[in-house]
Design goal:
By secondary structure, the chain is of the alpha/beta class. Helices cover 39% and strands 19% of the residues. It has a seven-stranded mixed β-sheet with strand order 1-7-6-5-2-3-4, sandwiched between helices. It has a six-stranded mixed β-sheet with strand order 8-9-10-11-13-12. Strand 8 and strand 9 form a beta hairpin. The longest helix is centred in the N-terminal third of the chain and has 16 residues.
């Protein structure tokens, strides 16, 4: 764990400040839950606080309390720049380096004259003046809970904050089934339920509001599933044409890679999604046991994340990317064979 400048940050926040809270590009449940929860908490402490995210977040998160007042940098550019320029401090949540916000927003943040406070659980974070970094914690939302706790302010957690935090912890732990889910996580979740988080409603809003086209897209993805049993590996592909055929919306592929990982005997899973707009193949990696997809992605696909969940990208074609991926597996065969399987 890295806890840097915490006492100084507490003193800085004793007076009302203008604060911006930023999440990463393509924000997920943990990014949206943590940024909105921190915003609500800081507002209750008397600060003027605004959430800015780099681009669109999935529709299944647009019910989160406070999401309607969030600025999107990509199409609310002038408003986003104004609140950034007028802020005394920027919180960076659920990402470990400024490039994770995308090139245009990165340039704005790099020119920012004041300080950053990072709260994040990803490996190898950039150095900031104020830092709370812990790769052992399952989600940034749990870290925000513990940040509030460090300030002796758990009584400030109301139903809105509890709902946002529960959502991020639930999504980043795969509904509490991933290895990173600890007894501490369950105690935090219990407290959030006590403070008003409706666990059944939150789960339904995130996972049980599928569109017809989203289910058809899932069917297409599963029909593209490939298994490489000698490497205990499975992968899924989705082309741009397949996405368009089923009216793809942001968030429609959330969690699809976990279907590949759920296969008996599979240790390593990946999904490769063509993104014509960015000119890349977006990749999500998942693993079981001791096989680190963070290292694999950092070494080969310009990405990273956690030991059992990471992202990456390729600027080659889909076929070239798959060929490259499968050719690498022989280098990791012994690691895959000895990785612990639950």
């Amino acid at each position: 764990m890295i806890l840097k400048g915490f006492d100084e940050l507490k003193r800085f926040l004793e007076k009302p400040r203008n604060i911006v809270v930023v999440g990463h590009r393509n924000p997920d449940g943990d990014a949206m839950g943590s940024t909105l929860a921190l915003k609500h908490y800081l507002a209750k402490k008397g600060h003027n606080c605004t959430v800015v995210v780099p681009n669109e977040y999935p529709e299944f998160l647009n019910w989160l309390p406070g999401s309607e007042n969030t600025y999107r940098f990509d199409w609310q550019n002038s408003q986003s720049k104004r609140v950034i320029d007028n802020s005394d401090l920027i919180f960076l949540l659920d990402f470990n380096a400024l490039h994770r916000v995308g090139h245009d927003m990165q340039k704005i943040l790099e020119a920012y004259p004041n300080d950053f406070a990072m709260i994040d659980h990803h490996q190898q974070p950039d150095d900031m003046k104020y830092m709370y970094s812990d790769v052992e914690i399952c989600s940034t939302c749990q870290m925000v809970y513990q940040f509030i706790e460090m300030n002796n302010d758990l009584d400030f957690i109301d139903v809105d904050i509890a709902t946002c935090l529960y959502t991020g912890i639930m999504t980043d732990t795969g509904s509490f089934r991933f290895r990173s889910t600890t007894s501490r996580t369950h105690r935090v979740i219990a407290d959030l339920i006590d403070k008003g988080a409706e666990n059944d409603r939150i789960h339904n809003n995130v996972y049980d509001a599928n569109s017809y086209n989203r289910l058809l897209l899932l069917g297409q993805a599963l029909s593209n599933l490939q298994i490489l049993p000698s490497y205990k590996t499975a992968y899924i592909t989705l082309t741009n044409e397949e996405k368009n055929r089923f009216d793809f919306q942001k968030g429609d592929t959330e969690g699809v890679v976990n279907y590949a990982l759920s296969l008996k005997g599979i240790i390593f899973a990946a999904i490769f999604i063509e993104d014509k707009e960015q000119g890349i193949i977006k990749i999500s990696f998942r693993s079981k046991g001791d096989f680190s997809v963070n290292k694999f992605s950092r070494n080969h696909f310009n990405g990273g994340g956690h030991d059992n969940a990471a992202g990456g990208k390729s600027e080659e074609s889909m076929q070239e990317t798959i060929t490259n991926f499968t050719s690498l597996l022989s280098e990791y065969q012994s690691d895959l064979e000895t990785a612990y399987e639950d």
